[in-house]
From TrEMBL:
UniProt protein name: DUF1566 domain-containing protein
Residue stretches in coiled coil: none
Domain called Fibronectin type-III: residue spans: 742-839
InterPro entries attached to this UniProt entry: Bacterial_rp_domain (IPR044060), Choice_anch_U_dom (IPR053784), FN3_dom (IPR003961), FN3_sf (IPR036116), Ig-like_fold (IPR013783), Lcl_C (IPR011460)
Length: 1073
């Protein structure tokens, strides 16, 4: 800044004259003012100062330096226009201040869509430097950056000094590009590893027929369109160019490149093909292999493409009579081809032509193939002589015929009058009527016909009762036939007729047979006399009868009243009821019948409740029987029926028995009355019921509200739940029910200290006492407490509180209680899960307060008169303020803290990056929160969750209640859930500060880092930065509410319980190793 000031010393001039009573002298003084200047920035005010008389005007010219402009000018009530500042009517000394500022430079940016430019600042002024960083899209390289007289240096574009408005322009080139041909086939070209980019001068896909391209070797041809790509790279660089086709590459090919206007094949070591033959990778070098211009200039030129040996097709023109194989063949330019000629049966090869070839046996060898060509062959059909011959007894015609291969021929066969055609054979033919047709003629052959004399047929038929043999026979005309006639057993020959024959014994002989005829034989059956007789007691009918041979006869056997058939014999028969049927009768025979008097079975049966004896007995016709009837215990005879009998006492006598009969006895069961009565407190139903002997009865027992069943007795029964079932009833009896009052379950509460828990419960009426159970297992019941090492304590009704002593500190105990009366125990009370307090043996930090207060002021120096003995006057905080506290590290007031690196090593107090903090007084090591959005981010929150039933206060909390409120949350991964348990696991896996024993702090441990000398947050932020003024979870559950846990509010250092489903912050701790 340039300052100038002009100080002018003005003398006050006065004129002194003598005394003259008749003359007066007047003197006037004109005031002058100094106008000074003050300049800020690069520029000048000219002149640097002015002296103006009162009322005069003056001007200053503002002269900015190059690149600067007038920012403002003020003072002395002047006006500014076009670099001239004018002061009018000077009235006092004053100062004009001019400010100059660098002129703003407008820097604009232009780039394609594949590069982003980032300037080092938003606005520029004259003389500023510019640093431009850039970011490329994947698949693109920088082409150039220009403008503002800058230069690219180490991937930064720098402008030393701006002097005028300008534009910075950036362009890119792709490392990969998709080209399309006229047939819409696409080729994707990529420069691998970012070693080059594709220039816009690339022509892409071009056709091999392009007239500007030289001809390819006559034996080769391009099997697809060519690719012309220009690649920008570093001078002399070797790159890999990947070309991806839509269609597979041929198995054999060379990659041709245009070098010096001639097609040259790339070495195979520079060409790689993918397994699926869709991708080709070329190794190209600027100025070397594969560079069409052959110059080391940072550009690799094309074109090129895969070429294959030119192929020609030899086709076959097949004709009837034979075949040429193969039917077609692809042949490389200049090669020959070999074909095989085969001739069908019945044909002869005449000639083979085409492709300038030569026939050698069955092989046809072409000349060198230079274009597509065709091979054909001609064949001729073979002829054969077929002859015919007839045996004695007929003729065949014609006797010979000429046939071509594959023809069929017909011959006529004629037999003489007394002859038949016996057979026609030869030339694989068949006879239909008298026409014989050969099979397909494949060579010379002969047809032969034979004949035999005509015959007549003599048949025979036999009626029932015999047979005739043979049943049929063939004879030459004029011969005689003999037949044997045989009657069946029991039959005789009745008559034989036909064919003009005669019977002699069993032989029937025909006359000479001149035509077909039949012989018939008939037979008659034999008959016998059958007689029957009866013994005493019955009759038979009929006494005699005639029976045909083989038939059976029936005789009715009738016993007299009171008799039965004893036996029937003779004629090999069988008895069915009163009918006797003989077997087949083959001679005269006799039947005899005998009889016996009847006896009957008297059977007896008893219904339920008794017995009869005997159960069965045999009684002769007309006699009577006796049966003894015996009822079971508890039963009486109800009725006895059957066999027309009568009951006398226990004896039942039948009437005269004339048939089988049955006696039936029934019994009735005895019944008794079962009564029921109930005492005070309940009822029974029914109060009376009739029950059969030996049955049991059920009585339902109900209790009034507040009562329970004490006992139910009588009738030798038992109670199951609310139903009393008697024993077996054998006489009248009574059931009696008695009731008693139900003891209520008490409600308990408890308060824990370090090694004791005080349990309280409400007082109950109508009970005899209380029983308390406690153990460290949540599964405790009055029945199993001893299994878990639990304790049982009994109390009378005068006690309603009890202290459990000698307990383990920091241990969760489960407590239940029952009441009882006259041996009956109530249901279990509410179950308490309460944790004894931690027996703290570690040193405690001070509060961090180093000032004192009175009734109306704080932040006062200590001590304060009348308010002595305040917190700040004692302990570590007081020593720290007095300068007598020795510390290992740093920290506010009495806190002694050391920063730790990622491996847990000590860092100096001046370190700007650290991961953990060690409290040198308590020995605890604490997690440090971050602001990087990672695992330890200050904004992350968690639900309270502890699945360990021994330390969670009776409720594990919530595993996934808040959802996505912390880093890395994934609903499908329990390990990422935002709860305190999962967070501890994740931090230990990470090995924060080289340790894997991180845990949740207890309530007292977390209170130990609260700095009550500050707030929002109430912690030393020089060591614990990024601490939210909010609630942080402790591991301590809230004893009175199982769904609550303790937290510390680091806004003001307040400790309070909150519900476990809330989402709060977490700071982990571990013990010093």
């Amino acid at each position: 800044m340039k300052n100038s000031a002009l100080f002018v010393l003005c003398a006050l001039l006065t004129a002194c004259g003598g005394s003259d009573d008749n003359k007066t002298t007047n003197q006037t003084t004109i005031q002058s003012y100094t106008i000074t200047t003050n300049v800020e920035g690069e520029g000048q005010l000219q002149p640097t100062s002015l002296v103006l008389k009162q009322g005069e005007s003056g001007t200053f010219e503002l002269q900015p330096e190059q690149g600067y402009q007038v920012a403002s000018v003020e003072g002395c009530n002047g006006t500014y226009s076009n670099n001239i500042y004018t002061i009018e009517n000077a009235a006092q000394s004053c100062q004009v201040t001019a400010k100059f500022e660098a002129r703003a430079i407008n820097v604009t940016f232009k780039s394609d869509e594949y590069i982003s430019l980032y300037a080092d600042q938003n606005d520029y002024v004259y003389g500023d430097s510019v640093v431009i960083n850039y970011e490329l899209s994947s698949g693109y390289l920088l082409n150039e950056i220009t403008g503002c007289n800058g230069a690219l240096n180490d991937e930064l574009y720098k402008v030393d000094a701006l002097t005028t408005d300008c534009q910075i322009t950036a362009t890119t080139l792709p490392t990969s590009q998709l080209f399309s041909g006229e047939d819409e086939a696409q080729v994707n070209v990529t420069v691998l590893d970012g070693k080059g980019s594709i220039l816009s001068s690339s022509k892409g896909v071009i056709e091999p027929s392009n007239p500007k391209l030289p001809a390819l070797n006559s034996s080769l041809e391009f099997e697809r369109d060519l690719l012309a790509v220009d690649i920008a790279t570093e001078a002399g660089q070797t790159i890999e160019l990947q070309i991806a086709y839509e269609n597979s590459l041929p198995t054999q090919f060379t990659y041709q490149k245009l070098i010096d206007q001639q097609w040259q094949a790339l070495d195979q070591e520079n060409v790689a093909v993918s397994e699926d033959r869709l991708t080709l990778t070329l190794t190209l070098t600027d100025g070397g292999a594969g560079d069409s211009d052959g110059v080391i200039n940072g550009v690799i030129k094309d074109p090129g493409g895969p070429a294959v040996v030119k192929m020609h097709t030899v086709t076959i023109n097949q004709s009837a009579g034979g075949a040429i194989t193969p039917e077609s063949l692809a042949v490389a330019h200049g090669d020959t081809a070999l074909f095989t000629i085969s001739t069908d049966a019945g044909y002869t090869l005449e000639s083979v032509t085409g492709c300038n070839g030569n026939l050698n046996g069955t092989s046809y060898q072409t000349a060198a193939i230079t274009q597509n060509c065709e091979i054909s062959a001609e064949y001729s059909l073979t002829s054969f002589l077929v002859t015919a011959q007839a045996g004695e007894g007929g003729q065949i015609s014609p006797l010979e015929q000429l046939a071509s291969y594959g023809d069929t021929l017909r011959f006529t066969v004629t037999a003489d009058d007394d002859q038949n055609i016996e057979s026609v054979q030869g030339c694989n033919g068949s006879l239909a009527g008298n026409i014989y047709t050969t099979g397909v003629i494949t060579g010379e052959c002969e047809v032969r016909a034979t004949f035999d004399p005509q015959i007549v047929l003599v048949t025979a038929q036999a009626g029932m009762g015999g047979s005739i043999s043979p049943m049929s026979q063939e004879l030459n005309i004029g011969q005689q036939a003999s037949l044997i006639v045989t009657p069946n057993e029991g039959y005789s020959i009745a008559n034989v007729t036909g064919c003009s024959g005669s019977l002699n014994g069993n032989t029937y002989t025909t006359s000479a047979v001149t035509a077909n005829c039949q012989v018939q034989a008939s037979f008659s059956i034999d008959s016998y006399t059958l007689s029957a007789s009866a013994g005493e007691g019955g009759t038979v009918n009929p006494a005699t009868q005639n029976v045909n041979h083989g038939s059976s006869a029936q005789i009715t056997i009738t016993p007299n009243e009171g008799y039965s058939i004893d036996g029937v014999t003779g004629c090999s028969g069988s008895l069915n009821g009163n009918t006797y049927t003989t077997s087949a009768v083959t001679a005269n025979c006799q039947v005899q019948a005998s009889f016996s008097i009847n006896s009957y079975t008297v059977s007896s049966s008893a219904g339920e409740g008794g017995a009869v004896s005997p159960a069965t007995q045999s009684v002769n016709h007309g006699s009577s029987a006796q049966i003894t009837i015996t009822p079971k215990e508890g039963y009486s005879i109800d009725a006895v029926t059957g066999c027309s009998g009568s009951l006398n006492g226990n004896t039942y006598t039948t009437g005269a028995v004339t048939a089988n009969c049955q006696v039936q006895a029934s019994f009735s069961i005895n019944s008794y009355t079962v009564s029921a009565s109930a005492g005070e407190g309940g009822a029974v139903t029914p109060t009376a019921q009739s029950v059969n002997y030996g049955s049991s009865a059920q009585v339902s027992v109900t209790t009034d509200e507040g009562y329970m069943i004490e006992r139910v007795y009588g009738c030798e029964g038992g109670l199951v739940e609310s139903v009393f079932t008697t024993g077996l009833i054998t006489s009248q009896c009574t059931v009696t029910a008695e009731f008693k009052i139900i003891p209520k379950a008490p409600t308990i509460s408890a308060q824990a200290s370090v090694q004791s828990i005080t349990v309280s419960w409400d007082s109950l009426d109508n009970i005899a006492g209380y029983t308390l159970y406690y153990a460290t297992s949540e599964a405790i019941t009055p029945d199993n407490y001893n299994d878990f090492g639990g304790v049982k304590v009994e109390f009378d009704t005068s006690t309603t509180t009890h202290e459990l002593t000698n307990l383990q500190s920091n241990t969760t105990y489960y407590i239940i209680m029952t009441s009882h009366i006259t041996g009956t125990e109530s249901d279990v009370s509410n179950k308490l899960a309460i944790t004894t307090q931690i027996n703290i043996t570690m040193p405690l930090n001070d509060t961090g307060i180093t000032w004192c207060a009175d009734d109306s002021n704080n932040n006062l120096d200590c001590p304060v008169t009348g308010y002595e003995g305040q917190d700040a006057e004692h302990g570590r905080d007081a020593k720290a303020k007095a300068g007598t506290l020795k510390k290992v590290g740093g920290g506010n007031a009495g806190f002694d803290l050391t920063k730790l690196d990622v491996n847990g090593n000590d860092l100096p107090e001046s370190a700007t990056t650290w991961s953990c903090v060690r409290d040198n007084h308590t020995g605890l090591i604490w997690e440090v929160k971050t602001d990087d959005g990672g695992l330890h981010d200050k904004n992350d929150r968690y639900n309270w969750y502890n699945p360990n039933s021994n330390s969670n206060g009776g409720s594990p909390g919530y595993q996934d209640y808040g959802g996505d409120i912390c880093y890395g949350y994934d609903v499908n991964n329990e390990a990422s859930y935002c709860n305190t348990f999962a967070y501890v696991e994740r931090v230990n896996i990470q090995s924060l500060c080289g340790a894997s024993d991180w845990r949740m702090p207890t309530r007292l441990e977390l209170m130990g880092i609260v700095d009550n000398g500050t707030k929002n947050p109430a912690i030393d932020t020089q060591y614990f930065p990024q601490t939210r003024s909010s609630l942080f979870w402790s591991s301590s559950p809230y004893a009175e509410i199982i769904y609550g846990a303790w937290s510390v509010d680091f806004g003001h250092g307040i400790v309070r319980y909150v519900f476990k489903d809330d989402g709060f912050h977490v700071r982990l701790v571990r013990a010093r190793p």
